[in-house]
Fold this sequence. Notes:
The protein has five helices and six strands; from the N terminus they run βαβαβαββαβα. By secondary structure, it is α/β, with parallel strands linked by helices.
Amino acid sequence: MNILFLHGLESKLSPAKRVILETYGIVIAPDLDYNSNPNTIQNLYDEFKSQEITVIIGSSMGGFAAYHLANSMGICALLYNPALPYRNNVVQNIPSDLPKKRSPLMRIVLGGQDDVIKAKDNLVFLSQNFSELKECTIQIINELAHQIPVPIFEKQAEYFFEELCY
Length: 166
């Protein structure tokens, strides 16, 4: 299994989280600069459309990109506090000509204490764009803030990969 991981704004995949994901497959985690590249989604699509990516995982700004890539490449996705409703003044273009294949399975983890990307704002966005989703699980963790602690990351990854294999 090939796992594409997209980190958040000014972030990276931590070694501990990489080890967790490597139990499920080969991890591809490109170094992204969302601030200087407004065409990140198009560039990622062009780079990975012909590769055998099985799942895409993204956090915050990476969750925003992963949402759009999963729905254009038709692959399963796990999103942690995705920046779907807003991106804090970081310009990211959503290409209008990407294919519309819809993700067959999407798990979205939202933090009830997230003060960067509010869970309720993500829920409003998702309700307004529900037709883009086939099967979607939304998990709200009341005590979770924006940063994803390793134990929560691990447990949610486990749930996601179990869903894939049911």
